[in-house]
Write a structure and sequence with these properties.
233 residues, mainly alpha
Length: 233
């Protein structure tokens, strides 16, 4: 492979990682990789003689409890949702069907995330990162207005998308509080104590930026106009 091939590959990767879908999935990948790495690091060697310690840790992370299973399902759905956003916005005008699939899948993922958080004993984040997020995404995925004849208006779509953005704030606040606690504790292993909340903070900021990009008035107006044409057809 020559320099030109590398440049083409680099541009293709940059294009895929740009836009809401790219930012969503960068955050998803960071959260998944760091969470799994921390789980493997914490496992006690020899905890399960039938499996290598790392595989035992991975199994525990992905399916060690019902909350872990729900989180795994949510993560997989979120990855697919991010891909739908990427495909939708790679076209001009945006592909309305793919946008709605992205919103709908993200709503399902948020429900699974809320279940995971509830099982972990965190009802506040379950209500915000789960329920509010899901409501915003399902609302954004609505194909028609109340009478079933008109596409949802851009202003109403903005309200749903803003609800998704607002749902990020409690998780950001929790992450900042945990980081502050770790930094303020002289006995704490700062690097280890701040790894997960710092990762959560970075992921939430990436997801929030993707939410903001989806608030673009031109994007919503274009999608609404395209949807209107489909309804007339």
């Amino acid at each position: 492979m020559g320099p030109s091939s590398n440049r083409i590959g680099g541009r293709a990767l940059a294009t895929r990682l740009a836009g809401p879908g790219g930012y969503y999935n960068i955050g998803n990948a960071i959260g998944l990789c760091v969470g799994l790495a921390l789980q493997v690091q914490q496992v006690v060697p020899g905890a399960d003689e039938s499996l290598p310690a790392s595989l035992h840790a991975a199994h525990s992370y992905f399916a060690g409890s019902w909350s872990a299973v729900a989180l795994t399902v949510a993560t997989a759905i979120f990855f697919r949702s991010g891909e739908e956003y990427h495909r939708a916005l790679a076209k001009r005008p945006p592909d309305v069907a793919s946008m709605r699939r992205g919103d709908f899948l993200s709503g399902i993922g948020a429900v699974a995330l809320g279940m995971s958080l509830l099982l972990m004993g965190d009802p506040l984040l379950a209500a915000t990162s789960g329920l509010l997020h899901a409501a915003g995404k399902f609302g954004s995925a609505l194909k028609t207005g109340p009478r079933g004849t008109e596409p949802i208006r851009p202003k109403i779509a903005h309200l749903f998308r803003k609800a998704v953005l607002i749902s990020r704030f409690p998780a950001v606040l929790v992450a900042l509080i945990e980081i502050a606690k770790a930094l303020g504790s002289p006995a704490a292993d700062v690097l280890h104590s701040t790894a997960m909340p710092a990762t959560l903070l970075v992921c939430c900021l990436l997801w929030a930026w993707a939410d903001i990009l989806l608030l673009d008035p031109k994007l919503n107006a274009s999608a609404a106009e395209t949807a209107s044409l489909h309804v007339r057809d």
